[in-house]
Amino acid sequence: MSLDQQLRYYEERVKEGEKAHSEAAPGIKQHVYESKVSPYKAILRQVRLKAGLLICWGDVGCDAYPDSKCAGGQHETCEEHTHSCFLCVRQST
Ligand SMILES: [Zn+2]
Ligand SMILES: [Zn+2]
Q1: Distance 72 CA to ligand 1 centre (A)
Q2: Which residues are CB-contacts of 40 (< 8 A; sequence separation ≥ 6)?
């Protein structure tokens, strides 16, 4: 698969997983998320990096397109995660 195809493939998997998650019974929601959403989000982020696209550094499970910078001003994050940049957190510990 080309990178473009991989991007589309994993975006589709994430969407399907999120749909399954939203329809799942409360008791298994967590399980559905962990098995069908978060692994694909993690892969999607890797593929985006490989393709030279930006990803949000505020949360490993975030697949939003980053449109702002972290509080440290050095890394791309989405608006929701400007104050939880894990690259900055790692550097300061
Ligand atoms: Zn984010
Ligand atoms: Zn940062």
Answers
A1: 15
A2: 10, 13, 14, 17
